């Protein structure tokens, strides 16, 4: 009997489609010996829900699921129909997966106890960030954080399971629904991006070992509120203009962050006179993106301290956010400090 050894280079007729997300997760499972596969399954559950949400987004205009739902969430923001649909899809997937004991969602006032008594993880999620942009066909996203619960398995959920600082995340990621759909995540061992191939129904590794440029020429901020900025931030914006940097602001956090991560830039959502605590939520927006940013060699602060070191005090706590290329974040922080320092009177 003759045996022929497989040689992938023998044929040029079929190109390699690459490594699937599922296979990549299995390969990386060795990084988490304590998890026994639960974290890997949890990431697969999130990926599955994102595929379903992607389908809903792609047919939104045809299925009459664009526009407002008619309710407001705990933030006082008008819920879109797709907000509600995405929240249901992700919560349902996490419930059926069995690895998660509780969910914190932008769309729910309180913690959702999934009644999974053996669940080892807590997920904080913004199911559909920037959903109002769906009406005008602009990129939107999902943002998620994953924490290990700290109380004994099987016991009731406690505040300490939920109110953990970002430096305790075991994984975080986002899904970008745009010209192509991408899932980007980290488990604390670098950042990898996967692009969805709809004809096969799989995410494939397309952006391995993502790393942000140390510096950039893009600044992303809503300059419509310029008159409410503090002096140090105004000085930074003027510095960007003098250097002829590009102003790029989509109004969809995931899309703005993703672009700057790849090309180099800074995203800013500051505290202002109108929103003195900032607008973005710490638990399910800022923490996740800050973890990804740092794993990709970038930086994230609230203008004063590292985002990942902030101790949360409330479920839907807000925070200012300065995130992106290290040198750009350092510069804006420096100007903020300079202009916040009290002016010393000349007593001579």
TrEMBL record:
GO terms for molecular function: fructose 1,6-bisphosphate 1-phosphatase activity. Binds 2 magnesium ions per subunit. The gene is fbp. Keywords: Carbohydrate metabolism, Cytoplasm, Hydrolase, Magnesium, Metal-binding. Residues 213-336 form the Fructose-1-6-bisphosphatase class 1 C-terminal domain. Homotetramer. This is Fructose-1,6-bisphosphatase class 1. The keyword Flavoprotein does not apply. Pathway: Carbohydrate biosynthesis. It comes from Fontibacter flavus. Pfam families: FBPase (PF00316), FBPase_C (PF18913). The keyword Magnesium applies. It is found in: Cytoplasm. It catalyses: beta-D-fructose 1,6-bisphosphate + H2O = beta-D-fructose 6-phosphate + phosphate. Mg(2+) 2 binds at residues 126, 129, 285. Transmembrane segments: none annotated. Substrate binds at residues 129-132, 222, 249, 279. Mg(2+) 1 binds at residues 106, 126, 128. It comes from the Bacteria. Residues 20-208 form the Fructose-1-6-bisphosphatase class I N-terminal domain. Its EC number is 3.1.3.11. Belongs to the FBPase class 1 family. InterPro entries: FBPase_C_dom, FBPase_class-1, FBPase_N, FBPtase. Its cofactor is Mg(2+). SUPFAM superfamilies: Carbohydrate phosphatase.
């Amino acid at each position: 009997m003759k045996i022929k050894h497989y040689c992938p280079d023998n044929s040029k007729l079929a190109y390699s489609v690459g490594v699937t997300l599922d296979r990549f997760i299995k390969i990386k499972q060795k990084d988490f010996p304590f998890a026994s596969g639960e974290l890997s399954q949890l990431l697969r559950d999130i990926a599955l829900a994102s595929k379903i949400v992607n389908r809903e987004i792609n047919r939104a205009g045809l299925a009459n699921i664009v526009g407002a739902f008619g309710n407001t969430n705990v933030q006082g923001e008008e819920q879109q129909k797709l907000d509600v649909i995405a929240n249901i899809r992700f919560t349902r997937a996490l419930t059926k997966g069995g690895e998660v004991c509780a969910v914190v969602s932008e769309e729910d006032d309180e913690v959702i106890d999934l009644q999974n008594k053996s669940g080892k993880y807590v997920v904080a999620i913004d199911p559909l960030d920037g959903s109002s942009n769906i009406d005008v066909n602009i990129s939107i996203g999902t943002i998620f954080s994953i924490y290990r619960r700290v109380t004994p398995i099987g016991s009731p959920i406690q505040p300490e399971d939920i109110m953990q600082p970002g430096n305790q995340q075991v994984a975080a990621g986002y899904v970008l629904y745009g010209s192509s759909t991408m899932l980007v995540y980290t488990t604390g061992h670098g950042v990898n991006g996967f692009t969805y191939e709809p004809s096969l129904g799989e995410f494939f590794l397309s952006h391995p070992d993502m790393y942000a440029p140390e510096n950039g020429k893009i600044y992303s901020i809503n300059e419509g509120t310029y008159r409410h900025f503090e002096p140090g931030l105004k000085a930074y914006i003027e510095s960007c203009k003098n250097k002829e940097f590009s102003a790029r602001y989509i109004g969809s956090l995931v899309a703005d962050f993703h672009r700057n991560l790849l090309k180099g830039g800074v995203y800013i959502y500051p505290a202002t006179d109108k929103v003195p605590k900032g607008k973005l939520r710490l638990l399910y927006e800022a923490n996740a993106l800050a973890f990804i940013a740092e794993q990709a060699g970038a930086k994230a602060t609230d203008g004063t301290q590292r985002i990942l070191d902030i101790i949360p005090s409330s479920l839907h706590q807000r925070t200012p956010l300065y995130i992106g290329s290290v040198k750009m974040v350092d510069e804006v922080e420096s100007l903020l400090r300079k202009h916040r320092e009290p002016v010393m009177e000349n007593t001579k």
